[in-house]
Amino acid sequence: MENYGQSKNGAEAQTVLNCIDLSSADIQQSVSLLKQACLDCGFFYVVNHGISQEFMEEVFSQSKRFFKMPLNEKMKVLRNEKHRGYTPVLDELLDPDTQVRVCLIYFVSAPREVAKAVARIIALALDLDADFFDKPEMLGQAIATLRLLHYEGQISDPSKGMYGAGAHSDYGLITLLATDEVAGLQICKDRDAKPQLWEDVAPMKGAFIVNLGDMLERWSNCIFKSTLHRVLGTGRERYSIAFFVEPSHDCLVECLPTCKSDKNPPKFPPIKCETYLSQRYKDTHADLNMYNKQQT
Ligand SMILES: O=C(O)CCC(=O)C(=O)O
Ligand SMILES: [Fe+2]
Question: Which ranges of the sequence are coiled-coil (predicted)?
Answer without folding.
Answer: none
